[in-house]
Amino acid sequence: MLTKIIPAFIIFVLWLDGWFYPLILLPILYVLLVEKKPLESIGLTTRDLWPSTRVALFVFAADLLIYLPIFFYYKPTFQSIYLFDPYTIFTDVIWYPLYEEIAYRGFLLGHYTSFGDPTFSSKPMLANLIQSILFLSLHHKHLSSGHPLILIPVFLLGFLNGTLFLRTRNTVGCILSHSLLNASALVLNHIIV
Questions:
Q1: DSSP letters along 131-171, please?
Q2: For residue 155, what pLDDT is reported?
Q3: Given 44, 132, 170, 171, which residue has the most CB atoms within 10 angstroms?
Q4: Which of 104, 110, 97, 109 is nearest to 56 (CA)?
């Protein structure tokens, strides 16, 4: 019972506060010190690196195709929201993809699905849907800023990256697709706007 409650508590803490950088140590230390498992259990591995990377590029391209019309629809109002400074580049392109992919895809899906589960069976898909909704809820700023349609590619990214993780058990591809999409959004906002 505690093996499901403690990871849920860690996910809740990670969900509350993504900008406090040391929090990423919670799932890593829990896996290493409490469960005494290798980090491979949360997808930090080189196993299936190439398939994970290939699928990540597809996820990125598919999500970008969904994002582009939404971007052009909101283009006149974007400039006041997104900054293009070193801090924003670090947080959006490096930190949040790393943090969110380890937390939601690696840790959450790694704990609430089994390695042998068929990807599209009910248990992994339910866990994937739940983590996608939690991931989506992190991006509530788009509602308050008047850009609710951005939540469509956000949800899609979470769900597709969840599916990618379930297929490969590797978070590297998930981090890559997330970073590429965030970088594209920043570049589009500052080159085209």
A1: HHHHHHHHTTHHHHTT-GGGHHHHHHHHHHHHHHHHHH--S
A2: 97
A3: 171
A4: 97
pLDDT in tens, 4-22: 899 999 999 998 877 788 8
Q: Label residue 15 exposed, middle or buried (CB < 10 Å: 0-12, 13-18, 19+).
A: middle
Cβ–Cβ < 8 Å for 53, 164: no
For residue 169, give its domain range: 2-191
Instruction: Kindly report, residue by residue over 144-162, the tens digit of the pLDDT.
Output: 788 899 999 999 999 999 9
Predicted TM-score (pTM) of the model is 0.92
| C-alpha to C-alpha distance for 92 and 21, rounded to whole angstroms | 13
CA 92 to chain centre: 11
Do residues 68 and 184 touch, judged by C-beta distance below 8 A?
no
pLDDT at residue number 85:
85
Instruction: Indicate the number of domains in the chain.
Output: 1
CA distance 38 to 20: 24
CA dist., res. 176 & res. 180, Å (int) = 6
CA 155, 156, 158, 162 torsion-angle sign: positive
